[in-house]
Design brief:
- This protein has 15 helices and eleven strands.
- The protein is an alpha+beta fold and about 450 residues long.
- Strand 1 and strand 2 form a beta hairpin.
């Protein structure tokens, strides 16, 4: 079967209607031609934008000339209350300094070091679902469980505390409300506003961001004290907070660290949860693929180690195919720092350059059978070529997602733990409809029926 995909808008529409559609769902606000276009240009009274699908231009923007195409400040407008001056929003020297401090925490053997925390979070998620299915027979929305499991990974790897910790559970609860209140873009994304003019954020958005940042500040201040006392655990927070910029010798102060923790939580928890939930639905809709994943999962020892992940080759391809069809971040926006030419067209300074993992991953010219779910495609020449040229769920180049390696461990691991414990089935009248707000979620949840496996450990 063809996995669900949003219905594109008509070719021509008014700016007013486009903005209305965009605020509801970024994906269905786009025309069908973007699935086969090399580039598309949009003109409005306030800005010009170019959606770029041509691989050579994508590489130019992300890999070859990243400093000439910085993150767009327009997208930052909507996320600033929560993320402050985080590495996700900054550019130039500020961003370079932040990456010099953050990157060492994710290098070397850190994936292996954090694996026990990931495993613990995955096992806890399985236990919660076993309690739920034991208490209630019937379908359930998997998204809240995926969110809680992914948030559990963040807290265990970052601060060595589980999601059941009082502060961690409060951050998670507040974030659920923030996600429901936050549109993907506010008015400042469409209309350039002077810096002195107050931004029109919803009160629920402002209040939610303030509450989350207060809780993260408490965790960060406590960790600062533990570092000074020599009692801090050796986790990601300690590593980042004790790393000095090799060029300036500076370290993050508490407020700077709060900015970074906020984006770790947003990017690391929200995106992982989204991908996991879609992967489970795709497996439920394709029982023969699910059987192959379960076979790999059941080959793992009862307490798998980091080296056992090498046995999950097909499961990794399933997760990769999920990221192709449902990239958590559907679009990324850069800004032309100076005039350039793309495909014989003049791109003025300040133009918005849109890179779309969603359209690139389903592009009708690049991919064979682009709308089909086929994890085996990566073994073909077309799949290998497209993986190199048309697959950017984690972005690419210097601004590639810091946690990309973590995600490619966490996703297959969670799928294996869940599939060796349960058989998953779709629910007839609840086919998910993808919509994009902060990430590509389902409009009304992702409903599944979970049945404990008789051959589970």
């Amino acid at each position: 079967m063809i996995p669900p995909k949003p219905t594109p808008r008509p070719e021509k529409t008014s700016l007013r209607n486009y903005v209305k559609l965009f605020r509801k769902d970024i994906l269905s606000a786009q025309p069908a031609k973007l699935y086969r276009a090399w580039m598309a240009e949009y003109k409005t009274p306030f800005f010009r934008s170019f959606l770029v699908n041509q691989p050579s231009l994508v590489k130019r923007v992300l890999n070859e000339e990243p400093m000439n195409f910085p993150k767009s400040g327009r997208v930052a407008e909507g996320l600033r209350p929560l993320l402050g001056n985080s590495v996700f929003l900054t550019n130039g020297e500020t961003w370079l300094k932040q990456r010099r401090i953050i990157d060492p925490a994710f290098e070397g053997g850190r994936l292996k070091d954090t694996f026990p925390a990931m495993l613990g979070a995955g096992q806890a998620m399985v236990a919660r679902l076993q309690d739920q299915t034991g208490a209630k027979d019937g379908p359930l929305d998997i998204e809240p469980y995926a969110s809680e499991g992914a948030a559990d990974v963040i807290f265990r790897t970052l601060f060595s505390i589980p999601i059941t910790h009082d502060t961690a559970s409060k951050v998670f609860e507040e974030f659920q409300g923030y996600q429901r209140a936050q549109p993907i873009l506010n008015i400042a994304a469409f209309i350039p506003l002077p810096k002195w003019l107050p931004r029109f954020h919803r009160k629920r958005t402002r209040d939610g961001a303030k509450a989350i940042r207060k809780l993260i500040t408490d965790l960060t201040a406590k960790r600062m004290a533990e570092i000074k006392a020599g009692t801090a655990p050796d986790d990601l927070a300690t590593k980042i907070m004790t790393t000095a910029d090799p060029q300036t010798g500076e370290r993050f102060d508490t407020e700077e660290m709060v900015d970074q923790v906020a984006i770790f939580f947003l990017a690391g928890h929200e995106t992982s949860a989204t991908a996991l939930a879609w992967a489970l639905w795709l497996l439920a809709a394709n029982p023969e693929v699910q059987d192959r994943v379960a076979e790999e999962a059941l080959s793992l020892p009862d307490a798998p180690t980091f080296s056992d992940l090498s046995k999950l080759r097909f499961t990794k391809d399933v997760f990769r195919e999920t990221l192709r069809l449902y990239p958590p971040v559907p679009m990324m926006v850069r800004e032309a720092k100076c005039p350039v030419r793309f495909r014989e067209r003049d791109v003025p300074k300040g133009a918005q350059i849109v890179l779309s993992p969603w359209h690139l991953g389903r592009h009708e010219i690049f991919w064979e059978r682009p709308d089909e779910f086929d994890p085996d495609r990566f073994k073909t020449e077309n799949g290998k070529t497209c993986l190199r040229d048309a697959f950017i769920p984690f972005s690419s180049g210097p601004r590639v997602c810091t946690g990309a390696g973590f995600a490619m461990v966490e996703g297959p691991l969670f799928l294996a733990l869940l599939l060796r414990a349960f058989r998953v089935e779709t629910v007839a009248d609840k086919t998910p409809v993808p919509v994009a707000h902060l990430t590509v979620r389902s409009k009304d949840g992702i409903w599944l029926k979970l049945t404990p496996r008789q051959d589970a450990f």
